[in-house]
User: Which sequence fits this backbone?
């Protein structure tokens, strides 16, 4: 039998970005907070160190920081009439595990959504007519505006020490920045990371075509910087090892570096690692979650942790699975379109290319995501979609994140993959190629959703979450459009050789594509069409606050973490300034 | 790999003549039969713990190393395969001379090879390619089954095990697997080749601490400087100019 523990004011289910931010804000408001993390502790002093981190095999290939699929995974199928099978090792996306979660190994590309993204359904209807949106496209407006969220974007920028070039400062367009972005109340905390050689060529080419290139905003501090928590960050060392790894320079933002040091010495906070939350304990009558059940993965002991407030701060999959298991909110049924939990699963529709410049020296191993250059001319509703046959878009970039030797080699198509010819080609092309990416949106579709798998279970006997997802005609058309624009810029760079890659017709769970999974517990203004209200409070359990990208109604053409962090601050403010005074629903349906 | 030290006792070897004596190599790997399997056929000097001080930075490229998990026939296959995928030429020694076979052996004997962090509950269905790997096999078991299937196929097609084929036939056989033209019994030849190529490249390019990329040959081929990779002071100085450095690995800082 589970041991019932003493009630605490608040419990966090997962200690990534949102768990860390909420724990920090709630302890500041005087609450006693317990952070439950199913994975290991990850303390930068021990783990984010040299030479340890410069090990591509351990971190990038064998996925040191990622979720242990022997304990838990999800099942996947392309369509509702197929049988889902378990993802036996993650491939297309790589959720993290342990303190810091997916916020350790991210590439730290730090974006805001466009003001029009927050009311995308209304904007499309206004511009192209109410009937323009296909019946199968289940996109929704967010229940708040960009202007309401902006101060929280600003806070998260500062927490992370983001480096970038503002393009719109309080309504004034600033040359060299992104002219399409929403107005920001403050400049980026840090100047942009130094631009790479190939991205600079991309920028020149893009400019010659009339586009608006700017340095990619990144949560890697370009200079020494003290964040509002008093933690000293950076400067970035351009090591080229951001992806799937941690940062020894305290330059790349992570919960572990940018927030946790404060929490670790906070008497009102207690961290419990290897604490696997199996269930939210739901009192349906009272519309409250009374606490959580968890298993100590070190001992196998089961515990019940009662709490006044429960913050669901795990990954998209875990959040959705917990609500389905607890029976909180109506599960989505794609046949009838009824229900909300698991609805509007979204992803990032990335495509791209490579270009090869014979004789050039790019020193590709010197890398940082912020060395990349971007154009944002074809994102969201920043351009006219009349006659294009799709909605949505994405940014287009020339990337410069490093070229580690196992995974960072590219060869022109037609070169041998092994043998003597392969070696010669590798020696010739490694140092003079560059890569491109299109970061496409995924506009929700009726048939893309999550529910519980009827067959497969995790190590603790719970049904796995089942993902049903495929690329839609809308998104494929959008992606081909972006790739065509990319190809135009690449040609203007005049490479020796280039190629572009379109997405395969069917989504496939290998190889790696993006860890930008979204949806399942979406936010909205109506309980019939959303799981959480505008403050990320569950409609059906007023003391449950669901964080992270699972609340996205759809995925826009940008990396999600900037918005995830901003919404965590927005939700925390509502809890501390409104909910604590009068516990109960903050929005009346 | 090290077997050739016995086949050719000269202390310095002509790496360009790498593929000349597959039979001799096989004789080493298979000749002692059960003795190899029991780990007894390793030269005595390799069984002695090497004092760290005896071999400081100087790499011991030709020193034999015993395998931890590969059987003798499996080792013969892996050596022949990695020497075909990465043949000796002016850019590098052959794959096994770069430690790639030892790397593969160590990886398959590691927690990863045993299926760590892998969901292994049934039921098992073949599924669509979009659903990824669906076999019940761990990587170690996958390679065992794949090598057995590959040898069965080369015996049927060429009359002998893969490692006994002439160099040109090995190339032909691997190409047939790569293109899915080799028809393995109850095993996906193309998937096997994909995994074989992936682990070979990992061995050629990973930090030498794992046994491959000996003398950092893979990194030298690329011009990859290795550690410590702190370039904040070099970004501007080496704009459009090649940055050359003798590569350093984890062991160089340990």
Assistant:
């Amino acid at each position: 039998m589970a041991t019932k523990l003493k009630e605490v004011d608040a419990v966090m289910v997962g200690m990534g970005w949102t768990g860390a931010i909420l724990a920090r804000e709630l302890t500041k408001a005087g609450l006693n907070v317990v952070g439950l993390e199913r994975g290991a502790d990850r303390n930068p002093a021990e783990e984010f160190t040299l030479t340890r981190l410069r090990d591509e095999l351990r971190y990038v290939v064998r996925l040191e920081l990622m979720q242990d699929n022997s304990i838990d995974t999800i099942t996947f199928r392309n369509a509702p009439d197929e049988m889902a099978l378990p993802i036996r090792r993650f491939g297309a996306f790589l959720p993290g595990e342990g303190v810091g979660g997916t916020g350790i190994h991210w590439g730290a590309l730090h974006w805001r959504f466009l003001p029009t993204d927050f009311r995308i359904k209304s904007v499309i209807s206004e511009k192209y007519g109410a009937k323009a949106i296909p019946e199968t496209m289940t996109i929704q407006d967010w229940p708040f505006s960009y202007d309401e969220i902006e101060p929280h974007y600003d806070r998260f920028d500062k927490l992370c020490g983001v480096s970038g070039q503002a393009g719109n400062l309080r309504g004034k367009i600033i040359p060299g920045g992104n002219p399409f972005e929403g107005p920001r109340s403050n400049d980026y905390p840090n100047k942009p990371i130094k631009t790479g050689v190939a991205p600079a060529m991309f920028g020149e080419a893009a400019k010659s075509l009339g586009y608006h290139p700017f340095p990619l905003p990144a949560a890697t501090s370009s200079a020494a910087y003290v964040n509002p928590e008093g933690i000293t960050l950076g400067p970035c060392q351009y090591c080229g090892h951001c992806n799937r790894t941690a940062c020894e320079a305290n330059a790349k933002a992570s919960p572990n570096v940018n927030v946790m040091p404060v929490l670790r010495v906070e008497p009102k906070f207690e961290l419990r690692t290897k604490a696997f939350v199996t269930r939210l304990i739901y009192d349906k009558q009272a519309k409250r979650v009374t606490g959580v059940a968890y298993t100590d993965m070190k001992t196998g002991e089961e515990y019940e942790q009662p709490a006044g407030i429960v913050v669901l701060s795990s990954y998209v999959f875990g959040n959705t699975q917990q609500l389905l298991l607890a029976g909180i909110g109506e599960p989505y049924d794609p046949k009838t379109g009824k229900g909300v939990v698991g609805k509007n699963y979204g992803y990032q529709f990335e495509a791209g290319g490579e270009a090869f410049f014979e004789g050039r020296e790019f020193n590709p191993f010197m890398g940082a995501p912020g060395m990349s250059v971007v154009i944002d001319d074809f994102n969201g509703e920043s351009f006219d979609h009349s006659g294009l046959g799709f909605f949505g878009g994405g940014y287009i970039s020339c990337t410069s994140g490093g070229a580690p030797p196992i995974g960072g080699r590219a060869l022109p198509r037609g070169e041998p993959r092994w043998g003597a010819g392969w070696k010669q080609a590798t020696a010739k092309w490694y140092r003079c190629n560059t890569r491109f990416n299109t970061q496409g949106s995924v506009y929700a579709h009726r048939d893309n959703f999550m529910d519980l798998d009827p067959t497969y279970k995790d190590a603790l006997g719970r049904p796995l979450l089942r993902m049903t997802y495929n690329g839609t005609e809308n998104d494929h058309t959008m992606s081909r459009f972006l790739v065509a624009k990319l190809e135009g810029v690449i040609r203007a760079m005049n490479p020796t050789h280039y190629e572009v890659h379109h997405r395969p017709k069917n989504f496939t769970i290998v190889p790696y594509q993006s860890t930008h999974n979204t949806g399942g517990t979406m936010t909205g203004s109506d309980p019939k069409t959303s799981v959480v209200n505008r403050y990320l409070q569950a409609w059906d359990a007023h003391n449950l606050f669901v964080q992270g990208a699972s609340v996205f109604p759809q995925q826009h053409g940008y990396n999600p973490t900037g918005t995830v962090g901003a919404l965590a601050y927005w939700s925390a403010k509502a809890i501390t300034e409104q909910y604590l005074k009068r516990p109960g629903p903050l929005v009346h349906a | 790999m090290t077997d050739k030290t016995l086949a050719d006792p000269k202390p310095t070897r002509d790496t360009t003549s790498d593929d000349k004596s597959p039979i001799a190599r096989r004789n080493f790997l298979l000749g002692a039969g059960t003795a190899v399997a029991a780990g007894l056929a390793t030269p005595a000097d390799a069984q002695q713990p090497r004092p760290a001080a005896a071999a400081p930075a100087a790499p011991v490229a030709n020193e034999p190393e015993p395998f931890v998990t590969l059987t003798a026939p499996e080792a013969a296959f892996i050596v022949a395969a990695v020497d075909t995928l990465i043949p000796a030429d002016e850019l590098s020694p052959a794959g096994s001379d770069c430690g790639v076979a030892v790397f593969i052996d160590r990886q398959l004997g590691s927690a990863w090879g045993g299926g760590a962090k892998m969901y292994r509950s049934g039921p098992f269905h073949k599924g669509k390619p979009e659903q990824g790997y669906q076999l019940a096999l761990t990587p170690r078991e996958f390679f065992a089954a794949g090598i057995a299937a590959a040898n069965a196929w080369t015996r049927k097609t060429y009359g002998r095990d893969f490692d006994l084929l002439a160099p040109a036939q090995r190339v032909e056989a691997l190409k047939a697997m790569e293109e899915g033209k080799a028809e393995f019994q109850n095993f996906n030849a193309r998937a096997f080749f994909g995994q074989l190529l992936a682990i070979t490249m990992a061995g050629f390019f990973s930090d030498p601490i794992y046994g491959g990329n000996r003398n950092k040959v893979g990194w030298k081929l690329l011009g990859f400087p290795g550690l410590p990779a702190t370039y904040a002071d070099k970004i501007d100085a080496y704009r459009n100019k090649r940055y050359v450095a003798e590569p350093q690995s984890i062991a160089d800082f340990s």
Chain B touches chain A through 63 residues (CB under 8 Å). Residues 1-24, 26-60 of chain B have pLDDT under 50 and may be disordered. Chain B is about 40% helix and 0% strand. The first helix of chain B runs from residue 3 to 7.
